[in-house]
Amino acid sequence: MTDVKTQNAITLKGSATLVKEFFHFGINSILYQRALYPADSFKREKRYGLALFVTHDKKLQAFMDPFLQQVEYWLAKKQLKRLVMVISEVKTKEVVERWQFDIHTEDVAEDGENAHRVKDEKKIRQEMSDVLRQITASVSFLPLLEEPCSFDVLIYTGKDTQAPEDWTESGACLIPNSETVQLRSFSTSVHGVNTNVQYKADF
Amino acid sequence: MCVIGHYAIENMHILRFGKYQNPACFYPIYSEKFFLNMSLLPFFPGFLYVCPNLPGLCGVYWCKPARLTPPETPRRSYRVRKMNNRGRTPGSAGRTVRPSVQQNGLTMRKRDMTPTRNTNLVPNASFIGDRFLGVRLDQDELDHANHLMTSKLYNKENLNNSISEPNSPEKKNVESEALKQMMRHKSAGALTDADDGDRILCYKKNLAPPPAIGYINQAKVLYSTNSVINPASSVKKSTRHVKETASKVLDGPGLTKDLYSRHLDWGCHNWVAVALGHELYLWNTETCVIKNFFEDNAPTSEGMITSVRWSQEGRYISLGYASGAVKIYDPNRPKTTEYVRELRTLRVGGASRCASIAWKKQGVMTCGYKSGDIVNHDVRVAQHVVSSWGGDNGHSRDITALEWSSDENMCVSASSDRTAKVWDGRHTRGDGVVQDPEPLFTIDEHTGQVRTAQFCSFRDGILATAGGINDGTVRLWDVKRQCQKIRELNVCETGGVGGIVFNRPYSEMLTASDDGFLRIFRFNANYKLSHEIQASNEPIMDLVGSPYDEVLIGDMEETLKVFQLFTVDKSTNILDRTAPKNVGLNVR
């Protein structure tokens, strides 16, 4: 009985790792699906029962890894409220797409009695794979990125959060007159992540 | 709306949204021949206009004739009138109709129209006077478009996006940004979606690594209508996927830069023979074992190796030398003393530079020399010359390629004298030495040297000849029908074609040319180019096919590349996979 309980118990730290992993695959999927980088710089990886594409470009990996580390740290500290991936045109800096992941953190203590929730990890992964599947499917309705585009990652956090040097204060990079499509959400029972994508209306 | 002239935007209907990348002007769809540029406005009522690239205004517009025609189609107003007639006395009908029509803004009455015209015949047609203007879309759609156009989505700010507008959008943005900055403290919600007091942090702003230079979004190539990328040239429509990158790349230092030598041959046992200067290397493509055949003791007395050819069953290898000698080796033989693998050297008096060798099954080897002579050697007997094809009937300059057809009834020879000849296989051997028989056919249509020739492996009697520099064509001939020309394919604009390989499973022809491209032509009714692969930046000198699905090229950059172009999808059983026959050659 205790075994079952410990197997399905999700701690704050474990949840942060799960959500970070989701962001890793999510952001890579967006980069691949939206063709920000050449398709041959990605390699297939099997995850969540899906074939996902992950970059093997060294520079991009060097860019992503520290940032995901930091995200995991903030997740574990319950300080991350929202993560936004902003896709903007390289030349004009105009924001064309905005992938928004709202994070809702349950009141879980870092350790002690109230330190874990119970949810089957399989179910969590299933929920994550649903979101990733939707990201893949989003190519069908998102407008074509005609100009070369780049991306930035924004995080929304509380006032007192300490940030490393790499992080700078920024605006919200909202898109005027945008369309929003709500994607599915998932929850690790500690972190709930709600995904939507905003894009520039085409006319 | 300055661009639209004196017709306000309310009079323009959006018929269809879309992106039009053509010049910055409106032009009527009705007569595409003449373009109306901006200065020629105003718009003609009743015409369709395409607004190509004004931001926010892209689309096709129909200039609604506000004053001249009724807002509704005549058909509808006719219906209204009919309804109005109902319930009235017949006598009063005439009087009541007219005012109601005028109320609708109708300037024409039924009796003004040409008597023969029946308004019920063509729905959705509008009339100006007695002119007929077809409108292809439903009135409902137009109304919907008009609504879209005039609704709040298209408020004033959005419409002022024209270039000539003094308040350009950028300016506006700057202004509004400044305004936002000023208002920041008062209402944070207006410019950010963050909660009060929250911080937004950006990771390494604008420092995400850029994609590779020259990278084009593949989806854009497929779906964009932008004229910068020509979709037709960048993505060839093809029926199958071809891996465009080399699966193996080998360095070939000392590969002689000679377009007219044959440096490579792929044996039926997947051993590839590569001649590098005086040296010969054998490379097993399955195990990737490489053997130096002469083990740094290569014979140099005969000059460079100018041609390499495995015998058909792969037991022997013959090397043609610049001196004109042809040596036959047996790679299976254990090496005890120097040159012991050499079986024999065949020399012909007065011959020099043997650049092409073709083997027949029964131990007969056909060699072409610089003089233009072709000699058949029976390698099994001491008096090895069994026939020579030359003299007045032969070629006048060096032989560049020799190939036997699969049934060995015919042999084709290509030569620098701009001809190719097809020889009868029966003239190989006779009672004595066969001297200078007449060729079956002489192909003299090439405008340059004929660099290579090949019989089609899957269609009987089809012969392909490829021209060298100043020609760049591949010509197909039907030797079964008096060598009738079937097709002339322009393969390479800037140089010659160095090699042809036929691919049986897909019925295709692969060519390698001096511009470094491999091109695949489909062998159906129109011999269409299906794939183009840039294999090298330098001219490709050699192209050989494997017994199975690969091809090997040797280029002027001294590299050898293997391409897997003919891989048959095992999941589709339409094409049958024939494994290469392995004779178990064991090079010691």
Automatic annotation (TrEMBL), chain A:
Pfam name, any one: HORMA
Location of this chain's protein in the cell: Nucleus
Top-rank taxon, per record: Eukaryota
Domain HORMA: 13-197
Cellular-component GO terms for this entry: centrosome; kinetochore; mitotic spindle assembly checkpoint MAD1-MAD2 complex; nucleoplasm; pronucleus; spindle midzone
Primary subcellular site in the record, as a coarse category: nucleus
Residue ranges of coiled coil: none
Entry keywords, A to Z: Cell cycle, Cell division, Mitosis, Nucleus
TM regions (residue ranges): none
Family statement drawn from the similarity comment of this UniProt entry: Belongs to the MAD2 family.
PANTHER family documented for this protein: MITOTIC SPINDLE ASSEMBLY CHECKPOINT PROTEIN MAD2, MITOTIC SPINDLE ASSEMBLY CHECKPOINT PROTEIN MAD2A
Name of the molecule in the record: Mitotic spindle assembly checkpoint protein MAD2A
TrEMBL record, chain B:
Ranges in a coiled coil: none
GO terms classed as biological process: anaphase-promoting complex-dependent catabolic process; cell division; positive regulation of anaphase-promoting complex-dependent catabolic process
Region of interest (Disordered), residue spans: 82-120
Residue span, CDC20/Fizzy WD40 domain: 250-562
UniProt keywords, alphabetically: Cell cycle, Cell division, Mitosis, Repeat, WD repeat
Cited SMART domains: WD40 (SM00320)
Keyword Plastid carried by entry: no
Any one GO MF annotation of this record: anaphase-promoting complex binding
PROSITE patterns: WD_REPEATS_2, WD_REPEATS_REGION
WD repeat ranges, renumbered to this chain: 392-424
Protein family: Belongs to the WD repeat CDC20/Fizzy family.
Identification of the protein by name: CDC20/Fizzy WD40 domain-containing protein
Provenance organism: Caenorhabditis nigoni
Gene this chain is encoded by: Cni-fzy-1
